Predict the structure.
Amino acid sequence: MAKVNTAKEPEAPSREADPTVERKGSSRAGKQQISIFDAWCKQCGLCVDFCPKGVLTKRALGSPQVSLPEQCIGCLLCVLHCPDFAISVTAKEETGDKSEV
């Protein structure tokens, strides 16, 4: 007869942010919207490693964060290298409230 293991598995360490929340950062110029979906991210760090401008950095527990959104050039290297499709960079829409001179 096989022995049944009734011991509980140790819980994974809690994340710094709620994994169901999508974190966003915007460039100061308003050209790109950078979104990180924590529920899909496995904290591999590829997006951080491939960012040529250092827009993304790692938090204490390894999850990426948008630190310098104003430096984003929209190269999409973070998006292309993310194996989990957890990051997106989109162009922000023009609001059209510019005054004419």
